[in-house]
Amino acid sequence: MAAGQHTFTVHDSEVLVESPILGLRRDEVEMPGGKRSYREIVEHFGAVAIVAHRKNASTGASEIAMVKQYRHCVGQRLWELPAGILDVAHEPELTCAQRELEEEAGLAAESWGVLVDLVTSPGFCEEAVRVFLAEDLREIPRPEATDEEADMAFRWMGLDEATAMIFRGEVVNSIAIAGILSAREVLSGRATARPVDIPFEFRPRHLAERRIAQGVEPDMKRI
């Protein structure tokens, strides 16, 4: 069989770990030549992130909303885009993005587009993220935050500065990097954002579908 033609059939699947925001699954997969191998997959709900863009009233320069949040996995506070998990059953990606922009930045937007879809760690994790561009912004009350978000800092950052911080190694969150650089292309006119109703092909399904089948909704984290 020519390369690129094999069907990787799953012969067996077992959930090893179930936790509020992820699961760990082991699949028995048929490899080329008939051998079967095990692959461990981190299941995830998927997520959204938002590049909220405005023009500085004094200088006319492009600015984007950035947050600095503690991330326990790396033990540091990271500059990131407003973002959140798709953990509400059946919720459209845009609805989640609108809620997260309100909760993390105290902003609402009249204009929305899709910048990029990305699979963050395809070697072992199902997590996929849709990054939106939000414009025509207005400030709205921000709900009271809890946990790490209660420590979150917010800042309007120049798009040029954010780009420079990527190349200085000061913005390392992969979702933020993809969002900032893709927004730069769109805002410069070198690329075009996609419509918000385009299907999110890589949105993870396994964890969400299992929780919904178990009656864990609308908040699928509550197990």
UniProtKB/TrEMBL annotation:
Family matches, as SUPFAM superfamilies: Nudix
An example Gene Ontology molecular-function term: hydrolase activity
Domain of life: Bacteria
Entry's Gene Ontology BP terms: nucleoside phosphate metabolic process; ribose phosphate metabolic process
Entry-linked InterPro entries: NUDIX_hydrolase-like_dom_sf, NUDIX_hydrolase_dom
Assigned keywords, A-Z: Hydrolase
Hydrolase found in the keyword field: yes
Position of the signal peptide: none
One cellular-component annotation, GO: cytosol
Stretches assigned to the Nudix hydrolase domain: 43-179
Residues that span the membrane, as ranges: none
Name of the protein described by the UniProt record: NUDIX hydrolase
